[in-house]
Amino acid sequence: MRPTAILTDIEGTTTPIAFVRDELFPYARARLPDFLARHGAEPEVAALLAEATHLAASRPVQDALLAWMDADAKVTPLKALQGLIWEEGYARGELLGRLYPDVPPALRQWRARGIRLYVYSSGSEAAQRLIFGHSDAGDLAGLFSGFFDTRAGAKREAASYRAIARAIGLPPGEVLFLSDVGEELDAAAQAGLLTTQLARAQDGTIASTRHPVAADFAALRTRIG
Beta partners for 118? Predict the structure, then answer.
């Protein structure tokens, strides 16, 4: 297996679920009211609030945002607002992106060998860049050729992966998608992508029988080269 490009998920794949669940999400939730009070009138934030207000229907928008956070809802304006809050946290040194230690050497090796790297996560593109740009292994954001979030479509829909393949200009069969979630891999395979599930013991991932499985990126390095 030697793909032209690798498209990777983040949570449970490159990054421990606990980091997102126990550090990033509580950080954003605790700071949302103050962030909106300070930045709510700025054009970017105001536009996101307007989009969120439309989706919230009759609920107060801040209440809706907090409820979506608690439910880990994949709501695009929420994810963008979380990314802006995290941006402040990384800039202040209060946050540091956590990666599994097997991830950075694999990313560097693949990039050195000419394999293009991309990210597809439900977190905003900005949030993705922050995790890799302020990681515990240094600034790795430059290793990636592009980042995709839910604006490309839902992660469990095949059309999203077809759209990403078109955007990066490659046949789907030359793109390897990595994720810990079987249903995401199902959608990618339906779109024609190569797939491998990361079944990390630390995250308690249950391996699917429908896709190749790897315990970590070190095992993938052996397969891909």
Answer: 7, 146
The sign of the torsion formed by the CA atoms of 6, 126, 99, 71 equals: negative
- Mention every residue, 6+ apart, whose C-beta is less than 8 A from residue 51: 76, 77
Domain 20-91 has CATH 3.30.70: no
Residue pair 25/69 in contact (Cβ under 8 Å)? The answer is yes
For 74-79, which contacts have Cβ atoms below 8 Å and span 24 or more sequence positions?
74/122, 74/150, 74/154, 74/155, 76/51, 76/124, 76/149, 76/150, 76/151, 77/48, 77/49, 77/51, 77/52, 78/52, 79/122, 79/123, 79/124, 79/127, 79/149, 79/150
**Measured on CA atoms in the order 152, 154, 157, 161, is the torsion positive or negative?**
positive
| CA–CA separation, 122 and 10 (whole Å) | 9
**125-166 pLDDT, tens digit each:** 999 999 999 999 999 999 999 999 999 999 999 999 999 999
Give me the mean pLDDT over the 92-116 stretch. Answer: 97
Domain ranges of the chain: 5-16+98-224, 20-91
Under CATH, domain 5-16+98-224 is a member of which superfamily? Answer: HAD superfamily/HAD-like (3.40.50.1000)
Q: How many residues belong to the chain?
A: 225
